[in-house]
Amino acid sequence: MRFAKLVAGVAFGAAGIMAAQASGPDEKFEKALLKLDPSVRLEQLCDYTALKQIRADHKDFRPDRAVASAMAEPLVKQDTVEAKAGAFRSRKKWYTMTYTCTATPDHMKVVEFKYAIGDEIPVTKWAGYGLWD
Fold first, then answer.
1. Which of 76, 94, 74 is nearest to 85 (CA)?
2. 129 occurs within a structural domain
3. What is the pTM for the complete model shown?
């Protein structure tokens, strides 16, 4: 299920991915994930899922980077990441985003994902958030 809505110049989207339709990363990415510590793996999997979901839901965005911890550390509880101050890069511009991502216990597949896209981040703030061109 996908929902997308443009409200007051800010795009909002949400996608619930059920276990039967669990979205796993491609084979190359999956092999890379297996090399990571499970706690690191979870955030990487969720950031990757954010990129894929934004690409699928919003044709005007072409995201190539996502950072759950851009403006604040995400909250991680067991198999769930809550990124309340993340960012993604699209066409050489950074945008704020939030997401909640729940994965399987091995942190290899996403079972639920919801997100919202916020405003463009001014270039003058990039360095302070550790973002790059």
1. 74
2. no
3. 0.80
